Structure of Methyltransferase type 11 domain-containing protein:
Amino acid sequence: MANHCPGLRVHRSMPVLAGVYRCSSSYSRTCAVGSVPSPSEALKKWKTWGRAPRRLVLGLGVSVLAQFMSMADTFGRNSFIASARQKSDVEEILKNAEWPEQFPFKEEDFQRFDESPDTVFYESPRFVTHIDDPAIDALTKYYSKVFPPSNTPGVSILDMCSSWVSHFPAGYKQDRIVGLGMNEEELKRNPVLTEYAVQDLNLNPKIPFEDNSFDIITNVVSVDYLTKPLDVFKEMCRTLKPGGLAIISFSNRCFFTKAISIWTSTGDTDHALIVASYFHYAGGFEPPQAVDISPNPGRSDPMYIIYSKKLTTA
């Protein structure tokens, strides 16, 4: 994990790492208006998928949205309202959403091509940036709008799946900014952190902090590596203060072999639904919202935010 979804640019003269791919970018950019299959067609394709690993159908254009719709038909209800498959859909897709009663994903959806221990994969530090400079700038500007001002008394922030850089505003400081990541050398280099912890959330999804500890939790381009996302999001809810804000950002790049199957076989709008579903089914959060902060569509890495606040009452 640890923010390992590299973009086009690397830090200084660091080499580009092998095995870095766009996460179904061709799929996400070629889906057109009217391309969503009908519920009956989607259900047929959903059943077909059950006979083969999901990663083998990459690029077939089967939408997570349509899958949800077909599953909802099976239960006798509509689960989502489909709209045109465009960039703006990432912001629109969660409006008026009606979720299936049960979490719609299966265990196989969280399998990965490379199931070797993540501790081995991340044992060597990678001092790289994982999205390009315009996307980084867009994320930093977003943080500057939603974060409390620097040096606000009592504010605590957790950067989950952290690395050597958190993309916080320049000079941003709080009494407590905690990094939770996979590589200690990277975490030691992160200038914004006041403390850090090394932990593999795929082995142990329990966040090692007390209840109601943080005002904000961030996760930058790493949600696609979580194999126990509901457990992690429940832990996020537990450790957030009432009314605390969780900000999940993602782009369309990843270490393909370590990203979960349901992520690598779908596109950007579907990714918004996937992340939002984690908030919804974890419980304890306000309805998740989506923001598209992509700086230069088609010319730089896209950048998306799914955010939610912890409910103030049970």
Notes: The beta strands are 20-22, 156-162, 176-181, 195-198, 214-220, 240-250, 253-255, 289-292, 304-309. The radius of gyration is 19 Å. The CA atoms of residues 145 and 169 lie 10 Å apart.
